[in-house]
Structures are given as structure tokens and as C-alpha cells.
Write a structure and sequence with these properties.
single chain; alpha/beta; D-Maltodextrin-Binding Protein, domain 2; 6-stranded mixed beta sheet; 13 helices; disordered N terminus; BUG; Tricarboxylate transporter; signal; Bug_dom1
């Protein structure tokens, strides 16, 4: 994986060569439609509504940003519509999540969109924590042998959604995982955990802090590991939102006595990077005029340096560094483009482990 620091430096150089510091001419339409292929109130919708006023502050002449929710098919429906209808004059942008990236990475036949036809201008990372029921008697990796052969129900949205790398991580730890697919949201999965119907669950940073931290403090949930974050060298390190919770890699090494490796870990890492290191992504069509691209890039670069944005971002999406410009574009491209061999591997894994076919 290319070093994040090098990519950020490349992005800065690109901006300087294109005339950074000079005012960007007003090249954008007065109204910009921001497609969110999820329902109102979901994580991607909340992220977009948080980012929108901050982005608008730095776009030339403050155009009206209209968020259009087009849910369906786990985000595939709205994303397909955007791909077919989006104009290339700067008036159409889209925000995606892992549920949009994963079906594309797996070659799902329902997908009509092509990320190679879009340019990422902003990527917002997130973290996540996997936690288990306290009655299992597991407090750390040293206790994981107690779970051998224990059925572990897991309330999940779907096999190709955000839970995918989590299921892979638990499988590598030897969990006898029993996913129940069909949850409408991760929040619904958490409620199943609270009712005792699920033995294991996971939530992203914002949801964990808002809804699970209290359970942890009350002794009703035991954090097992965090997914961690990528540092500037592309290595997984502890999540700054959860500095006391070990990463999956740490737990695996303590339990297995070696670093995770092999095809399953390689595929896991790919989906982790796409789904968490770049969890929410803002795209524009690649064929927009250069002046339109420059307007958007100038705006997001200024936005992520704004102290007000960063202060609110810690509360809204966690203490993570937003990635912009060429760095975001290159990183997303590296993450979502899978080799046929890796793609087939994960399809076979889903079929063998959970009797799930991805066509």
C-alpha cells in the first residue's frame, strides 16, 4: 500500500502547481444535488448533513447544496441512478459508504456504477469496536479458548455490507459465528445484542460512543477488539477514540502466537481499508471541467483546515484525519479494485461459511 504521507504530499504539490492561494473562479451551478443512496437518519445521511454547511462555506458563491436521499438495494439503487443520470457540470455529487463499495468490489451483478468514472475528493475514516456478552466469561484474548465451539449469533445487515470484514476477523479467531442477516441497520443489531439474542456485535465509532459505552460501563458489554486505524505508513495502529482497546491484529497475535497472514487476512485488510479507512466518500464525475474540479478541491482543502469543522468533526465522526484530493482519489482506487483471484476467494468463503452466493 502506498504511504499516506507520500500521497498527501503529492496532493499538496498538485494544488500548488494548479495555483493554490489564488481565488477560484465561480464555475459551479447555483444548485448542487448531493445524492445519498441511503435513507434519512442513517450514518451516511448524518455525515453528509454535517459536512454540507461546512463545504458550502468554501464553495464559490455558496451554492445551495440539496441532499437527495435515494435508498434501496443497500445503496445500489441510488448509486446506479446517479451513475446513469449525473451531469458533469458540477451540479451532481454523491456520497457513498462501505455498503456501496463492497458490492462493487465483489462484482455484484446488480452494480451498474463504475468508480473509475468518478473522482474522490473527500474521504472520512471511521473506527469500530467488536464486543461480546459478559456471560461468555471472556475478558481478553487470553480467554478466547473458552469460546471454542460456542455458537455465536450475530445480528447483521447483510453478507456484503459493513459487517463483512468483521465476520472475517471473527472467523480468523475461530468463532463459531452464526450471522442472522436482514437487520435494517447496525442499530437494530445492537438492540438484538441488548436483548441477549446476539452474543457478539460491533458498532462504528460514533454509534459505540453514543450507545454502547454506557453498556460497557454497566458491565453489559465486553469490548473484545477495535478495528484500529491506518497510520501514515499504511499500518494498523490503535484507534485514538479507543486507545485502551487492542486492535484485531493485537488480539490475534496474543491468541494465536503469530501475526495474521494468508489469503483471508489479505482480503480482510482490503475490505477493512475500503470500509473503514475510507468509510464515507464524496465523489464527483471524473469528466467535470478542470475549473469545476479545482473549485471542489479548493473547498474541501480549506474545509478540513477549518478549526470549527475539525472541532465538530471529532464529535460527529471521531478523531480521524479526513483525506482529500489526489490522496483520496489514489487510495480509493487502490482499495476498491480487486484482483479476480481475491474476488473469487471471498465469494467462495461466503458460500462455504454462510451458504451465501454473490453473483
Amino acid at each position: 500500500m502506498k504511504k499516506l504521507t507520500a500521497l498527501l504530499a503529492s496532493a499538496a504539490l498538485t494544488l500548488s502547481l494548479s495555483g493554490a492561494g489564488q481565488a477560484v473562479a465561480n464555475t459551479l451551478p447555483s444548485t448542487i444535488n448531493w445524492t445519498i443512496p441511503f435513507g434519512v437518519g442513517g450514518g451516511t445521511d448524518v455525515w453528509a448533513r454535517f459536512v454540507s454547511p461546512h463545504l458550502d462555506k468554501y464553495l464559490p458563491d455558496s451554492p445551495t447544496l440539496v441532499i437527495k436521499n435515494v435508498p434501496g438495494g443497500g445503496s445500489i439503487t441510488g448509486t446506479n441512478l446517479f451513475y446513469n443520470r449525473a451531469r458533469s457540470d458540477g451540479s451532481d455529487i454523491i456520497g457513498t459508504s462501505a455498503s456501496t463499495l463492497y458490492p462493487y468490489m465483489l462484482g455484484d451483478q446488480r452494480v451498474r456504477y463504475d468508480f473509475n468514472k468518478w473522482t474522490a475528493i473527500l474521504a472520512s475514516p471511521t473506527g469500530g469496536v467488536v464486543y461480546i456478552q459478559p456471560d461468555l466469561g471472556v475478558k481478553s484474548a487470553a480467554d478466547l479458548a473458552k469460546l471454542k465451539d460456542t455458537p455465536m449469533p450475530f445480528a447483521a445487515q447483510g453478507p456484503t455490507q459493513l459487517e463483512l470484514p468483521v465476520m472475517m476477523a471473527l472467523d480468523m479467531l475461530g468463532f463459531n459465528l452464526k450471522p442472522v442477516f436482514g437487520m435494517k441497520s447496525r442499530g437494530e443489531g445492537r438492540l438484538a445484542f441488548e436483548r441477549g439474542e446476539a452474543k457478539v456485535d460491533f458498532q462504528t465509532t460514533s454509534a459505540y460512543l453514543a450507545s454502547v459505552k454506557d453498556l460497557e460501563q454497566q458491565g453489559k458489554a465486553v469490548p473484545l477488539f477495535s478495528l484500529g486505524i491506518l497510520n501514515g505508513d499504511g499500518k494498523v495502529v490503535r484507534d485514538p477514540a479507543f486507545p485502551d482497546i487492542p486492535t484485531f491484529q493485537e488480539v490475534y497475535k496474543e491468541y494465536k502466537g503469530e501475526e495474521p497472514s494468508g489469503p483471508e487476512y489479505e482480503v480482510y485488510f482490503k475490505f477493512f481499508a475500503a470500509g473503514f479507512a475510507f468509510q464515507k466518500v464524496l465523489f464527483i464525475p471524473t469528466d467535470v471541467p478542470a475549473a469545476v474540479y479545482d473549485s471542489y478541491i479548493s473547498a474541501v482543502e480549506k474545509m478540513v483546515k477549518d478549526p470549527d469543522f475539525n472541532k465538530e468533526a471529532v464529535e460527529q465522526i471521531g478523531p480521524y484525519e479526513n483525506i482529500t484530493g489526489r490522496a483520496a482519489e489514489q487510495y480509493i482506487s487502490d482499495a476498491v479494485n480487486m484482483s479476480p483471484e481475491r474476488q473469487q476467494w471471498v465469494k467462495d468463503w461466503l458460500q462455504t461459511k454462510f451458504n451465501v452466493s454473490v453473483n
